[in-house]
Write a structure and sequence with these properties.
The complex is a heterodimer of chains A (about 140) and B (about 150).
Chain A (H helix, E strand, L loop, with lengths): L11 E9 L1 H11 L9 H6 L9 H16 L5 E8 L12 E12 L4 E10 L2 E2 L1 E9 L2
Chain B lengths: L10 E3 L4 E2 L2 H10 L5 H4 L1 H6 L13 H4 L20 E10 L8 E14 L2 E12 L2 E12 L9
Antiparallel strand pairs in B: 1-4, 2-4, 3-6, 4-5, 5-6
The chains are: A alpha+beta (about 140), B alpha+beta (about 150).
Chain lengths: ~140, ~150
């Protein structure tokens, strides 16, 4: 875990890339209990006006959050975590899937030993999350 | 078909508690590709000061969907077509982490249903506790695409 004294506003978290393929969506459906067919059935996804099967927003949120929990070391130090989903993560049925690029920066350092981390998550340069923030207790 | 606005303010508590097992946590962590030892190895979690395996921050979604979410989403009276639903916002505020061994009870309230252009947004707030101890609040806004009532010109 980073020492609170070594973290300042502007401290950057190590950026990461994560690949999401259909297999990941199926596995996430099973683990989370969210079997909405738009996350695994191309026929239904396109019938309801989506470009293709899309990732669960919660899978995007969970994957993005790994940048914070890996940095903190102890995931139990996350006090809050919230996101808005601004664009779907389209996951075509090919060998490439979608690549999520995640970056984080410390935006606030509070007297109570918590820091606020702002997160950006993009696919092909497009932001798929807005206002993504995690509060982490370091002290 | 617009959602039934009579549901605004309704509240329901999960009938069956959600028992969090070590394997539930490992299965969820594996599904998000996360090998953090605190999710997999009870000794590693204890070394960090935790009583047992820690659940990933977003694990609570599995306890706040479906019946754990008050059963509203599947209620035909609400009129929600799940295939038209995408996720709008999600937020978790923790009093403490979720641990293996927790027995979670959820009380979900439909805080709001409102139009946003041609879509409707529904916000559900779920208070999660384990054996009477507050654990977290989950705030979930879903988007029902294209179901807003037509506007008068």
């Amino acid at each position: 875990m980073p020492a609170l004294s070594e973290v300042e506003v502007g401290t950057e978290l190590p950026a990461r890339e994560f690949n999401l393929q259909r297999m990941n969506l199926v596995q996430y459906a099973g683990a989370s209990g969210d079997f909405n067919p738009i996350h695994w059935n191309e026929r239904i996804a396109t019938a309801v006006g989506l470009p293709n099967v899309i990732a669960h927003g919660m899978l995007t949120m969970a994957t993005t959050g790994r940048v914070v929990t890996d940095w903190a070391g102890d995931p139990g130090r996350v006090v809050s975590y919230g996101v808005r989903f601004s664009a779907p993560v389209v996951v075509p049925d090919d060998d490439k899937g979608a690549t999520l690029t995640v970056a984080g920066v410390v935006e606030e350092k509070n007297d109570d030993g918590t820091v606020v981390v702002g997160l950006t998550a993009t696919v092909d340069g497009q932001k798929v999350l807005m206002g993504a923030k995690a509060v982490v207790r370091l002290g | 078909m617009p959602l039934n606005r009579a549901f605004i303010g309704r509240s329901a508590t999960s009938k069956e508690p959600f028992e969090v097992t070590r394997n539930d946590i490992r299965r969820f962590a594996n599904a998000i590709g996360d090998g953090n030892p605190a999710y997999h190895d009870p000794e590693a979690a204890k070394a960090l000061g935790h009583r047992d395996l820690v659940a990933p921050p977003t694990f609570l979604i599995s306890a706040t969907l479906g019946e754990g979410g008050g059963g509203f989403i599947g209620d035909p009276e609400l009129g929600l077509n799940y295939a038209m639903v995408v996720h709008g916002e999600e937020r978790f505020d923790f009093h403490r982490p979720v641990y293996a061994g927790d027995v979670l009870t959820s009380t979900t309230t439909i805080a709001d249903i409102r139009d946003a252009g041609r879509n409707e947004l529904m916000t559900l707030v779920t208070e999660v506790s384990s054996n009477g101890e507050k654990v977290a609040t989950a705030t979930n806004t879903i988007v029902s695409r294209g179901t807003a009532a037509p506007k008068e010109a």
